[in-house]
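Chapter review. Work through the record for Chromosome partitioning protein before attempting the end-of-chapter questions.
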Amino acid sequence: MAKIISIINQKGGVGKTTTSVSIASALSKKKYKVLLVDLDAQRNATTSLGVVEPEINIYSVLKGQINLDFINVSENLFLLPASLDLAAFELEMATEPGKEYLLKEALERVSDHLDFIIIDCSPNLGLLTVNALTASDYYICPVLPHHLSISGFSSMIEVVDKVQRRLNPNLDLAGIVMTQFNKHKVLHRDTAEVIKAHFGNKLFLSTIPENIALAEAPSSGTSIFDYAPQSSGAIEYMKLTEEILDLNL
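Structure tokens for Chromosome partitioning protein:
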């Protein structure tokens, strides 16, 4: 049965989609069967893997309009694309009984055939993110190395705590990863120390650097490992993935 990991942060621009795509791709390079679920109406994970206007999308699955299916984008890597219609999902499902469990129920049908399911969440703490956390075994938080990036952590943790208490008692934090990190900047090192003081070993040792190749890869429609496998971004995301595997989730 697949381990399901949500990549969440209510702030935009923290590298959430890059982290989702890169971890999913790295796991597939290590021969694990991986499904990446794009749960963000902006569809950045979908387009980053070169998928445009797919007939299959997560919105139609959650609405019960089609059976769950996905696209094989590369060896061992599968994608369940997003749709712009996700923007209206919360309003449309406001009165739906059990609306928090829709994604969990959908993924249960394919979990036995996969090793990992990575969910790229939307940059808010609404119904889609609650669905992701309800379906997940673990969550990972990418954060930028400055204090404003971590100032909203308390509200995110409140939502996670409520999901744990009311919907998914098995949900656990796999770790926090620093993105756009420059070890030579005092502010970046200080922010890492603040996070480590609060979360201890939940802060991953791997840090994702400021790397132009990571910014360029989405326009190529491939992961960083195919676009620039020797770049610092690819090397650090592979190290991060190995740390995740070492957790024996």
